[in-house]
Amino acid sequence: MRLTRRAALKGLAALGGAAPFLTLPARAGTLTDVQLLLGGTLASIPGQFAELASGAISHALDLATPLELTPDIGQDGVRAANLFDANSAPDGNTALAFPGATLLASLTGDSRVHYDFGRWTPVLVASTTTVVIARAELHKTLRSRLTGFFHDHPVRLAVSRIGGPELNALMGLSLLGLRPIPVPGYVDSSKALTALHEGTVDAVQISPYTLDRPLDDVLANLPEGTSAIYSTGDLTDTHSTTIPIFMEAYQQARHRPPEGPFYHAWQAVSAAADTAMAIALPMLTPPEIVTQWNHACTAATADAGVRRWAETHHFKLVTGDNAAPFLSRAVPDLGATLALRRWLAVNTPRWREGQETRHL
């Protein structure tokens, strides 16, 4: 019995994707036995999108059999990305749908990572917004709030785990001159906001798609003495356009624009945090195959079910050439990467002991 490419990938997934195999590329322009590897379960953001969009993608790719969805037990996409990078031929028959956590794991030097997302070709990105809320004196200027209230006061930041997606806020608050302490255990945004109301933490990071109510409702009912310090990503699909972007917050606090390797590292981490999910093809995928996938993803974004899903979660869907910049922003230069890894090496042991962040 002939071992099909699909059976080989499934066998590798069961074994943890440890052994590579050879796959002969399909004839240029022909897609057969196509599958979408998911960096998460069907309930994850990539899984939700894939189930909604699979019909439109299959039709646009003119597939003889429907696109096969291959979910993963992991939620951060690392295992699926390792399998994709090591074993997927550049024939367009395998694509990867992954969350921003997959990018973040690579940026932070996670020992499980054996892939280089900078080599992938993105064909779709679902971007989101991140808002950092912190305890402050609202009647003062931002600079007064940051230097006044937080002077000699470490900032307790609610995080899901050490090194999790809240690294965006952890680095951002550090750049603003504060001394954040990550307080782990807040996987759910509602619990983090409750802790902010109760005074258990001083700062939280939220995104509209993690909330059980509109962002504007959350911002209108913040506890006294707190406010949105800054936002990243695109706020144009919400009413909360008065939140300063990070550049504005930094200039108000420091009276100069941000610069340096650590700031550039934060920009990459922020781009990862603002990536709800993305779909990519392997490096060296022929241009005509990339064009087919771009067309298919564009068709998927026109699907009524996909549009409703994106609107509900406040995702901005971009495809084709417009998707590439979103992924490239998460690729820092060597100096920024080294600055981030050094900062993490110094502070991770401190955070585990409940100590404040040390500036380098």
UniProtKB/TrEMBL annotation:
In terms of InterPro entries, this protein maps to: Bug_dom1, TAT_signal
Q: Which Gene3D superfamilies match?
A: Bordetella uptake gene, domain 1, Periplasmic binding protein-like II
Signal peptide feature range = 1-28
Q: Provide the species name.
A: Gluconobacter albidus
Give UniProt keywords alphabetically. Answer: Signal
What is the protein's given name? Answer: ABC transporter substrate-binding protein
